[in-house]
Structures are given as structure tokens and as C-alpha cells.
Amino acid sequence: MNTPTSPTSPTEQLLGLSALLTPIELDWQHRAREFAATRIAPTIDDDYEREVFRRELVPELGALGMLGMHLTGHGCAGAGAVSYGLVCHELEAADSAWRTFVSVQGSLAMTAISKYGSEEQQASWLPRMAAGEAIGCFALTEPDGGSDPAAMVTTAVLTDGEWVLTGRKRWIGLASVADVAVVWARTAEGIRGFVVPTDSPGFAATNIAGKLSMRASIQCDVELGDVRLPESAMLPGAAGLAAPFSCLGEARYGIVWGAMGAARASLDAAVGFSRTRMVFGAPIASKQLIQHKLADAFVEYEKGMLLALHLGRLADAGTLTPEQVSVGKLNNVREAIAIVSSMRSVLAGDGITSAYPVMRHAANLEAVRTYEGTDEVHTLVIGRALTGLAAFR
């Protein structure tokens, strides 16, 4: 069984992050850690192997206040950005699938409805989603336009007082188990968002098979075959791509913390292994090359955590920019992948087995690297911020 880091692990003692956190933030962290250790860790290896998403855990996360926790009102906890980040960190230390779930539910679907929905839409969906009684998804990406949502071809046409949605979406997390989808489509007035109950005729979600990453999560192809909706289904406050981009920024922020959770779990596994693995009459932890790998990994982990905390403090102050989130996502996912790879080498042959979480985290992080903006996209976002010149086209 792969248990998330204990509060007294060498990694946490050396990091000393708890001294920089408030009692409320620590409480959120400890609750998320307990949930990860008792409800996710005992079954995650089997869930990953069999591609099982445990929907029964969703109401438990709701009862803990962790769904849409950064939002206020309609049953949401109104927690701070650092608290939310710490929850993401602990969940991803168990498995990326569960941080992804919290991101899709809270940062994407619930945030879209909270920020841009009508009072009726908010009252209808947010309390149930916060409680984990309803699951949401966020349908933006299309088969031929992952990094270029402006090229979307899904359309919404207003006909006789109804919106008719037609098109396809791909890599839509949770769509086949969702109760509601926030769907983005091109209208005569530009790109708009729509609240779509997934039992609407013409809405079909199919799980994507053959995944070698994020196997305890669900990603789908979505078909919109003349889905008919009332005029009130449109999100009234969402006009253009700025609205979905705002939601994506919330999810990317969670990744900044979450990726370091996967790195932490892998680092702690390697530290523990190295202290007991005997080679040439001594534990490998006593060898200089092993200590070099562990020390390098920890230094990058500490940098990543301090960057996450810095961005969290900016978010709580209301000054965090999208470009700063791009720095965090690019750096922390990239460094997490490097840390996990290095720790796999410390574990040697055992590192490729499910006795340790490292290969599972390595595979998951490849998906995390791609979604919510690839390395290339975030590099160009940062380059534009530095130079004032866009290099996307």
C-alpha cells in the first residue's frame, strides 16, 4: 500500500513548510492527507491497473468541503488559494486522478457556473456539486484544436427559442459520469458557454480506451448531436475565450501544487528504500551517488513548493496573473517529471513495480504535462510576457 507522506518524514522536516502556513491552511492539509491515506491509497494500485474511478468517494470529498472549495456561496467552503493548493498537493501525492477530479469539478465546471452563470444556474447546480451529489465536466477541447480553442468548430445556433448544439469534444474529463457539462461552442456572436444536462438527447460521452496514464480517472470523447437547450442554458456572463481561459487558470494553479505531490511521494519512497536496500554490505543511502540524486531531487522539490506557496499568496492577495501561473505549471510539472525519473533509478528494478508509486506517478505526470497547456504553450506565454511579442503563430 502506498501511503502519502507522514508529517514526520525527512522530506517534510527538511522543507519546514508548515512554519509558513496558517492554522486553517494546516487543517485543510491534514484533512486532505488523511483522506488520501485512508480512502485513496489502499486501493489506488488496483484502481489504476483496472481503470476504476471510484465515484463513491465523490460525496466524501463533498462532505469534507473540498469540491469548489475556493468558491463562496451555494454551499462552497470559501477557502483560500493556499488551502486549495495544499489539498491538491495531498490528493496528487496519492494519485493524479483525484487531484484531476477536484480540478475538473471545482476549478473548471463549478467555477464556470459560479463566475458566469445566472442565479438560477448557480442555485440549481452549485449546491449539489459542492456536496458531491452531482458531477460536472468542462467541454472545451476538440479533436483538431487542443492548443487552439479559437479554432473550435462546435456550434450553437438559436432556432425558435432553443439553442441547438452540434459538434465534437475530446479529452473531456468525467464526461461519462457527469450530470452536467459546461460546453463551449461558437455562436453568431462569438464563443459562448452552455450548461448542458448530460441526459439531454443528443449528448453522448464515450470513455477513451487504451490510456497508459491517468488510468484511475476518466477522459472521454463527447458527441453533440443537435442537442436542444432552452435559451436560459447559456452562461450569461461568459463571452469569448476569456471566460474558459479564466477557469483553466484556476485548474493550472492546482497543478502547480499537485505535481509536487507526485514528486514528494516518489522522493519519500526512494529515501525509505535507500535506507534499507543493502548493496556491498551497506545501505545504498550511504553511497555518495545515491545521496547526490536524493539531494538534487529534494532541492528542486523545495523550489517547487516555495514557488507554489508564492503563487498561492499572490492569489490570496488578488494579484496573481495568468503568466505567473504559466511559470508555475511549466516549472513544477517539468521538475516533478525529472524528480520521479531520478527516484525510479534509485529504486532500481523495484521501481518499475507497483510495490512503489513511482512508475504510476511517472505515467500520470506525462498526462499532466499535456493538459491545461503544454510545455510549449506555457513557454510562449512566458516569452510573450517577457518580450511583449507573441510567437504563437
What does this structure look like?
By secondary structure, the chain is of the alpha+beta class. The protein has 3 domains: 10-130, Butyryl-Coa Dehydrogenase, subunit A, domain 1; 136-240, Butyryl-CoA Dehydrogenase, subunit A, domain 2 (Beta Barrel), CATH 2.40.110.10; 243-387, Up-down Bundle (Butyryl-CoA Dehydrogenase, subunit A, domain 3), CATH 1.20.140.10. 51% of the residues lie in helices and 17% in strands. It is built from 12 helices and 12 strands. The chain has helices spanning 10-15, 23-40, 44-50, 58-63, 81-94, 96-116, 119-130, 242-276, 288-317, 322-347, 358-370, 375-387; strands spanning 72-73, 76-77, 136-139, 155-159, 162-173, 180-187, 190-197, 203-207, 219-230, 234-239, 278-279, 282-283. The strands form 4 sheets. A 4-stranded mixed sheet has the order 3-6-7-10. A 4-stranded antiparallel sheet has the order 4-5-9-8, covered by helices on one side. The chain has a two-stranded antiparallel sheet with strand order 1-2. Strand 1 and strand 2 (76-77) form a beta hairpin. Helix 5 (81-94) packs antiparallel against helix 6 (96-116). It is globular and about 80 Å long.
